[in-house]
Write a structure and sequence with these properties.
With about 350 residues, this protein is mostly beta strands. It has two helices and 20 strands.
């Protein structure tokens, strides 16, 4: 058995999937972004100081976005953003998971769905404000020529009959020789104190770093090499985790996960994605006395059989590593079968 080889961010091998999974490949890379905000007067305010990075994960079957830029307000606040996008073959749609936390608005995941038509992508969601007013939200990617793209954020209060544009981003691809790479420490806002949305969000701080160990798979007790890479994002408001398990035949099974405090759910929430390209939501009430954090899958009828769910537990080992345990239930959580257990130690 050989150790799992690290797959570094931004260097995913090519995918064997269909062309739909490649429709966002134009966005992969580093970008200088001009934000345009519609002011209450109806005029537009433009600020060219934002930066954005997009890279592939899951052998190129999904892409991750990291964004940082000024809000344009007098107090100098900044906007931090994250998204995960993948084409869901069952839905035949692109699914986008977004997280844009702030101390003022809190944190919370949102999902949008849509398709490409004629090199233009429109993804939609529905949002209800505190006053009970329901709005449709539409994100549009257009004008994606070599080295340039345009993104619009539009809303409708009449069921999509009319739309009002409130936010535009225009991206220009960075020249690596002229501009150099974006500082990833700056991009992930590790140059500021951590954002405190809720004390329970700090329960996963022990995960930060690179880890390796041996995984024991379920009833078969097959042993395989396991490697985990984690990063703190957006001033510590989220934890990104990539999990690589090397099988005996040499192939690598990857799972991608993002964890964050969700102010609306008042829970720790995680979304995971693997080679099935189905986005899965997990929730946790927070750490137990020993620091362990248990995430249980939340499914609805749209996700398929609600009896088939998973859960996973992450247990800190006092600075010497952590344990991971994954279980599956066929009866909505009445009983659980082992899927994988592992002890992981920090890499040198």
């Amino acid at each position: 058995m050989c150790a799992a080889q690290p797959l570094k961010l931004g260097h995913a091998p090519p995918s064997e999937a269909g062309d739909e999974t490649r429709q966002f490949d134009f966005w992969i890379g580093e970008w200088d972004v001009t934000q345009k905000h519609r002011l209450p007067s109806g005029q537009w305010f433009a600020d060219p100081r934002s930066r954005l990075e997009v890279y592939p994960v899951l052998s190129g079957d999904a892409i991750v976005e990291h964004f940082r830029g000024p809000v344009g307000s007098p107090d100098g606040r900044e906007l931090y953003g994250y998204s995960l996008r993948a084409f869901d073959p069952a839905k035949e749609k692109w699914v986008a998971l977004l997280l844009w936390p702030s101390p003022q608005a809190g944190g919370g995941f949102g999902t949008l769905e849509g398709v490409f038509h004629h090199n233009r992508c429109e993804i939609f969601t529905e949002w209800t404000n505190p006053e009970g007013e329901t709005r449709l939200v539409r994100y549009t990617f257009s004008d994606s020529i070599d080295g340039y793209y345009r993104w619009n954020d539009d809303t409708s209060t009449d069921g999509g009959e009319t739309w009002a544009s409130r936010f535009i981003m225009e991206g220009v691809r960075r020249d690596p020789e002229r501009d150099g790479p974006i500082d990833r420490r700056w991009l992930h806002v590790r140059d500021k104190p951590r954002m405190e949305l809720d004390p329970r969000q700090r329960a996963l701080d022990f995960l930060e770093g690179a880890w390796s160990g041996v995984a024991i798979a379920g009833a078969s007790a097959e042993q395989t090499a396991l490697r985990v890479e984690t990063e703190m994002l957006m001033q510590g408001a989220a934890v990104q985790l990539r999990y690589f398990r090397t099988r005996d035949d040499g192939t690598v099974h990857e799972v991608y996960a993002i964890h964050a405090w969700d102010s609306r759910a008042q829970k720790l929430v995680a979304y995971t994605l693997n080679d099935s390209r189905r986005l899965r939501r997990f929730e946790s009430d927070g750490p137990h006395e020993n620091g362990a954090v248990l995430f249980v899958e939340v499914r609805d009828d749209e996700d398929g059989d609600t009896r088939e769910i998973e859960r996973y537990q992450l247990v800190p080992r006092g600075g010497a590593g952590f344990a991971m345990k994954i279980e599956h239930s066929h009866d909505a959580g009445a009983s659980w079968d082992p899927v994988l257990e592992a002890e992981l130690q920090p890499e040198p």
